Amino acid sequence: MILGVLVVATDPEPATQVGPRGVEGRFGMSFFGGSLGGQGLSGLGLHVALEKRFGPDLQIGVEGAYLGLGDPDQQVDWRGRMSRAAVVTRWKFVETENLPFMGLWVDVGLGYERITWQRGGILYRPELVIGTSGTIGFARDAKRGRGRFGDFFQIRALISRGPSCAGMMCPTEMEMGVQGAVGFYFSE
Fold first, then answer.
1. What is the Cα–Cα distance from 15 to 23, expressed in whole angstroms?
2. What is d(CA 158, CA 87) in angstroms, rounded to the nearest whole number?
3. What is the structure's pLDDT at 45?
4. Distance (Å, whole) CA 33 – CA 48
């Protein structure tokens, strides 16, 4: 009888979940290279992201960037600013469980660009985001892999309609740019 009471009175050992969970934040530098209306553009700026991990293999997040744009060949005077926002889903390709922690992800998402030109005019357009990203870092709690921090990179293709498609259906005039970012990340 006493043995039965002791067994009931003790709680089972809580299951420990190894690996990051919760929220991940990123901050760094963003770069862009691509074409707009047949002309080459490039730019540099800031990148920020906030992501939530759902299980060990899936993250969904929002990201934004603010970049200065210009024509590297100086064929046209296209200077301006690009603001980007996107919702991105990331699937784990590979992630290590030993120090240093490393991960490689496949990214797919939808975004929106807003480009303002110095000489006047604003271009709004949606974009499809496809690419990859990776991390390398350490953890405050190395045994459980929690409290990770380190460096990240991402490289993505941005696919959107050309500027002459504004308000029209012309799926054949697609433009592609390459967007990337490097910087620091931290996770819960």
1. 21
2. 13
3. 95
4. 18
The two tokens of residue 176 are 């592609």
Q: For the CA atoms of the chain, what is the radius of gyration?
A: 22
CB 44 within 8 A of CB 36: no
Q: What is the DSSP letter of 99?
A: S
> What SS3 state is found at 5?
helix
Distance of CA 67 to the CA centre of its chain: 15
Residue 168, pLDDT score: 46
Residue ranges in the chain modelled with pLDDT below 50: 1-15, 167-172
Record the tokens describing residue 166, joined without a space: 């504004």
Q: What is the spatial distance between Cα 135 and Cα 103, in angstroms, rounded to a whole number?
A: 5
Structure tokens at 159: 């696919």
CATH of domain 21-187: 2.40.160.20
